[in-house]
Design brief:
Blueprint lengths: L8 H22 L1 H23 L4 H20 L3 H23 L4 H6 L7 H28 L2 H22 L1 H6 L7
Length: 187
Amino acid sequence: MSEKAQLNPLVKLALDIGPLFLFFFVNARFGIFTATAAFMAAIVVTLGISYFLIRRFPVMPVVSAIIVLVFGGLTLILHDETFIKVKPTIIYLLFAGTLFGGMMMGKNLLAVVFDSMFHLTDEGWRKLTIRWAAFFLVLAVANEIVWRTQPTDMWVSFKVFVVTPLTFVFAMLQYPTLMKYRVDEEK
């Protein structure tokens, strides 16, 4: 059985954070509604690029894109920025719920998503799943606090300059677990 094509990590990074940085810069210049439209367009473009490169749509970006398009559309149609601000909370809760729910049903969904990249023991996948699900819960709470207590520009900056680097740091902190629980591929 052939392995699924994978995006180059730098290309994946650009596709993941590019729309967010575009959102930040357009918001700074033209405001939240124009930024929301640009973000929606960028999400669709990145999905197209991803499909062109690997000939399939990755699950997590598709789910995120659907939520962006629904909540971005509501933001623009109703001219209410609340919808785009709540979108991250919903995505984080969806990811956390999916990871915890999968574990409760005896399935490790993080392993399904990342198995072609990492080969870990069941215990390693379980630990990473719990950590990532908890991290997504923390991000959901943080997003709710920031968007409800801070001006829109501060919330946008929080998304770009706090959440994004924090996510990278959290991911890097999981490296020792990846090494400790990796499965030797020769076995």
